[in-house]
Design goal:
The protein has 166 residues and is mainly alpha-helical. It has helices at residues 3-14, 24-35, 44-55, 59-71, 76-92, 96-103, 115-128, 132-143, 151-162. The protein starts with a helix and ends with a helix.
Length: 166
């Protein structure tokens, strides 16, 4: 879509916290109105609607929309966001194993600013499967580079959490 549309979507999301919990339907209507301007086959349509449902506490309604966006070809940065958010929603509805399957390949994807979000969401999905050590390893590994000190030791501890015992 064009920059004007993207700016208006960003402006709508900037107002999200202004909506009270009982105004969630109004926020979703705002997103729906913006989505209505897109071509019917745009992957951005189900993606933005999924985000709105998800952000207003309806992971169950968001899951099929994220899947549709990815099926329609959502890729790049927004595609990666969709995978992160879909995995989180899957965990929320009791399907963390699907989230793990979806996000694990993202660990080897080209690096971007979403790397830590991938690891954090994957850690939550792993925890949902009782694989807390693996999840903690991912979170510590993601945190280590941001620390003012102890980066090397935290990274080593992260690796040790999942190293084979021997």
């Amino acid at each position: 879509m064009n920059q004007d549309w993207e700016d208006r979507v960003a402006a709508a999301w900037a107002t999200f916290d202004d909506y009270a919990e009982d105004d969630a339907e109004d926020f979703r209507a705002l997103i729906d109105a913006l989505v209505a301007e897109l071509p019917s086959d745009s992957p951005l349509s189900p993606f933005e609607q999924a985000c709105a449902w998800d952000s207003t506490g309806h992971s169950d309604r968001a899951v099929p929309l994220y899947r549709e966006a990815l099926t329609l070809g959502l890729s790049g940065y927004q595609g990666r966001r969709a995978k992160i958010q879909l995995s989180s929603s899957l965990r929320n509805i009791g399907q963390p194993e699907e989230g793990v399957k979806l996000l694990t390949p993202e660990l080897d994807a080209p690096s971007d600013e979403l790397d830590d979000a991938v690891r954090a969401t994957l850690a939550l999905c792993l925890s949902g499967l009782g694989r807390d050590r693996e999840g903690l390893s991912l979170v510590l590994g993601a945190l280590a580079p941001h620390l003012p000190r102890y980066q090397r030791s935290m990274a080593a501890y992260a690796r040790a959490l999942v190293a084979p015992e021997g």
